[in-house]
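Check out one such.
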Amino acid sequence: MFMASFLTFMAIGGFPSFVEDMKVFEVERLNGHYGTTAFVIGNTLSSVPYLLLISLISGALSYYQTGLQRGFEHFVYFDLVLFTCNMLVESLMMTVASIVPNFLMGIIAGGGIQGLMMLGSGIFRLPNDLPKMLWKYPVYYIAFHKYAYQGLYKNDFEGLYFSSDQTGGLDVMISGEEILRDEFQVEMGYSKWVDLGILLGMVVVYRVLFLVIIKIVEKVKPVISKFVSVKPQQMTQVMENPTATAVHMS
């Protein structure tokens, strides 16, 4: 939860640079250097190496030191989830930057959205204990944290067995799948790779939403600017002087 939530939460610190990117894009688009689609694709591809490096370093420092399940394939999945979450949050913050160009308001909006998702992701309260209105439907199902947590749960617990002394003195082995299903209330109907696939799909959705918002702003902004720039018609005000004498024309 710490790695999937707070590491990605730090993307809010890059919001000022996202706003500057949007300003540069607007100027270069007006100059005809490139279009909106090229900007979104270029922005996505240029961020991949840096986010991958951040995910690898963070994952390597935390995975083995915390005693998670051994195996290179488990470490690879762990890093893929971190990388996808970083990509997703950056896509979310770019979407916010395209709507809210103000630094302070953008950081508040981005932090509020992520905080709302974290509260309804099933970590602070188990999924079955979440209030149905708002927190379970829709926050629990649209929060990317849910799929990140459950994917990481499955990656670490599946295939393991734990001894229990809570059965009247009998040493009973409990599988990791039982712990996930009964204790953490993880949805076990699909594999961890489906959780990762959902996260990748969310990245695409946020990037497409980013593209759509930019295109809408391109069409709406000139109309708003034209409306604001129209000067109101000047009205001539005639004041009557009660002390003036009437002039008669013959």
User: Anything to note?
Assistant: The longest helix spans residues 192-229. Residues 36 and 249 are 70 Å apart (CA to CA).
